[in-house]
């Protein structure tokens, strides 16, 4: 298993480009199952999770052609297997995103139940309830969701909790259902909006995009599309925090500052000087130590849970005391325990972390436990005294394209040790 070796202490400087968003690429690739002609998807990030989704679609019979820039052509006209097996779902929960499209287009789906996860129990009951309301006959047995429907029908569905992939699954299913589906308390994350725009470009009729109530009028069929994935706001935020923690000055290109209001607000509070254009963000920390900042995670447009671990790392070296409250996932503080091993002063109380910033962290061997937790350890390594070795970095490769190359481009001393 590969490891990352990071020598801390260098302020980041320079420019890099941001990749397409993982959490938009995954549902959009799943959505190609709905179209009767080929779809062309651009700006797809080169990530392990994207490879997993392509493997899954390929096994079902989707014909995929990938060029050297990872533009993907997908043709789902010869799909022969309507299943997502446990061996793939256990490596990527987002595999459950094929459930809605398979059921809506082919009337059948056999998808492994995603099990527990390092950040919380993450059930999919709302996906199942919504599809059942749309007329699907669903059995959960032997660890699988087995669903059948002649043709789904429209329904009014109120989701108890804001769920990103739940909204995406039901929205995709509703595009081909008979009649109108109303999804209330829908997620408004930019990636959900990107999927909606992609579906509309395929011929879907969706109103209310960007609000918490979606009206989807089912159509008989959808056709292929050309679609370019939006920039990854979490990758963007992670590099901004890296620059802020190291007292650096960086410019990120091919991104979209309008997706990061809550994060940019917090970076301004810690003392960063930020300038933006339509597709770039520049952050200048002017060599200062960050000020501590309180964080409260919630669904978009509030502060994203996917940036919580990175701000935990930042607060570990900030001036002052900060509290971080995690309201989306019940167990998303595994990184705190690893950061403590690097000298961070973090106290956990239920869903809250209380952090007293220390002037310096010390290098230590640490272990990645999930994607964003791993990112926080990389950030800590960038400022720690000495050489930090991070194990189990396959978690990072699931969601950050060429992280060591991009950080090296910004002057960091980081390298991958291959085993
Ligand atoms: N929930 C339920 N029942 C459901 C669905 C969700 O109780 O049927 C709960 C979850 O347990 C959680 C909350 O609702 O407590 C929100 O979960 P959500 O369904 O929104 O999460 P998700 O769709 O599984 C996506 C992202 C995550 C991101 C969350 C929250 C993708 C592929 N994944 O997960 O991304 O943290 O939304 O924004 O879009 C990551 O990229 O590192 C990552 C974990």
Summed up:
The protein is an alpha/beta fold and 419 residues long. It has 14 helices and 24 strands.
Report on the structure:
The chain has 419 residues and is α/β, with parallel strands linked by helices. Helix content is 31%, strand content 24%. A 4-stranded mixed β-sheet has the order 22-23-1-24. Strands 2-15-17-16 form a 4-stranded mixed β-sheet, with helices on one face. A hairpin with a 5-residue loop joins strand 12 and strand 13. The longest helix is centred in the first third of the chain and has 13 residues. The chain starts with a strand and ends with a strand. Uridine-diphosphate-2(N-acetylglucosaminyl) butyric acid binds next to helix 1, helix 5, helix 6 and helix 12.
């Amino acid at each position: 298993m590969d490891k990352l070796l990071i020598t801390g202490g260098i302020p980041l400087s320079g420019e890099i480009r941001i990749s397409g968003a993982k959490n938009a690429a995954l549902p959009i690739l799943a959505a190609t199952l709905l179209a009767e002609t080929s779809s062309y998807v651009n700006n797809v990030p080169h990530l392990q999770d994207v490879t997993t989704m392509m493997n899954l679609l390929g096994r079902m019979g989707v014909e995929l052609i990938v060029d050297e820039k990872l533009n993907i052509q997908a043709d789902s006209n010869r799909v022969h297997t309507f299943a997502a097996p446990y061996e793939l779902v256990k490596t990527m929960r987002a595999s459950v995103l094929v459930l809605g499209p398979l059921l809506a287009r082919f009337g059948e789906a056999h998808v492994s139940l995603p099990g527990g996860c390092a950040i919380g129990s993450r059930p999919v009951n709302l996906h199942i309830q919504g599809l059942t309301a749309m007329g699907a006959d669903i059995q959960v047995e032997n660890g699988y969701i087995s669903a059948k429907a002649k043709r789904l029908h429209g329904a009014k569905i109120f989701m108890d909790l804001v769920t990103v992939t739940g909204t995406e699954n039901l929205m995709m299913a509703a595009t081909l259902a008979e009649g109108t589906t109303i999804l209330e308390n829908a997620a408004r994350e930019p990636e959900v909006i990107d999927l909606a725009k992609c579906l509309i470009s395929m011929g879907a009729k969706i109103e209310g995009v960007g609000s918490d109530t979606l009206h989807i009028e089912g159509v008989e069929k959808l056709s292929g599309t050309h679609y370019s994935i939006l920039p990854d706001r979490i990758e963007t935020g992670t590099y901004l925090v890296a620059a802020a923690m190291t007292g650096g000055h960086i410019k990120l290109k091919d991104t979209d500052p309008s997706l990061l209001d809550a994060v940019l607000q917090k970076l301004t509070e810690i003392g960063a000087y930020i300038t933006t254009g339509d597709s770039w963000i520049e952050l200048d920390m002017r060599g200062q130590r960050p000020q501590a900042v309180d964080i409260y995670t919630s669904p978009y447009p509030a502060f994203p849970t996917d940036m919580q671990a990175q701000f935990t790392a930042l607060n570990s070296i900030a001036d002052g005391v900060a509290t971080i409250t995690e309201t989306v996932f019940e167990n998303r503080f595994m990184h705190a325990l690893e950061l403590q091993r690097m000298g961070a002063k973090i106290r956990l109380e239920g869903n809250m972390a209380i952090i007293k910033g220390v002037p310096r962290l010390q290098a230590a061997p640490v272990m990645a436990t999930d994607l964003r937790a791993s990112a926080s350890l990389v950030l800590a390594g960038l400022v720690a005294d000495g050489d930090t070795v991070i194990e189990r970095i396959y978690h990072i490769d699931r969601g950050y394209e060429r992280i060591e190359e991009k950080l090296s481009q910004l002057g960091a001393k980081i390298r991958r040790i291959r085993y």
